[in-house]
Amino acid sequence: MKIVHQKQNIFFISDLHLSHKNIIRYDNRPFENLEEMHTQLIKNWNSVVGKDDIVYNLGDLSFGSDEITKWFLHSVNGQIRHVLGNHDNLEHILRFSSRISDVYEYGVEIWVDDTETDDRGGKRNHIIMSHYPILSWNRAHHGSWHLHGHSHGGLMKTNQDYYKRRVMDVGCNNIDYTPISYQQVKEIMLKRKVSDVDSHY
């Protein structure tokens, strides 16, 4: 199924790790405890996402506390679509189907109608999303973007050439713990190179 969005308020985020106490230390997150982290994540989310906006969460939503996960999902705005991460369980995520409208097991491709489109002259921007980073993704040589999570910013330090391409780690600790908008991503991507890694005919 081809998913096409009109140019609208679409946001992206990953690796919230709700209820994961050690993530504060692992990521060096600026929170004293889980309660502060959860409260600030909700505040940040709702400061940019409206009720009718779409949010793609690219995995690792929570660390298993149904009560906290349910509370969080019912506290934040938007229509949430979820790509499973390595710490997500399909059965667990489906328990929150009243707040998560779609679940994708491996990833999802979307197209965004955009008359102010990229430097390649098209009318739609193509975005490939998965929890894990992909070396060569569909239509990369046509300017397609790749958004991922999982790495918590680690790959940006060790694989800088990779991030000169139109790829972005949208883990929350890389984007100020706030969902990043389509427009913000676009501004970043247009400054990066179109990949020729998987150029083929």
Task: Describe the protein in words.
The protein is an alpha/beta fold. The chain has one domain (3-189): Purple Acid Phosphatase, chain A, domain 2. Helices cover 22% and strands 21% of the residues. It contains six helices and ten strands, in the order E-E-H-H-E-H-E-H-E-E-E-E-H-E-E-H. The strands form two sheets. The protein has a five-stranded mixed beta sheet, with no helix packed on it. A five-stranded mixed beta sheet has the order 5-4-3-2-10. Helix 3 links the parallel strand 3 and strand 4. The longest helix is centred in the N-terminal third of the chain and has 15 residues, at 34-48. The two termini are 23 Å apart. The mean pLDDT is 91.
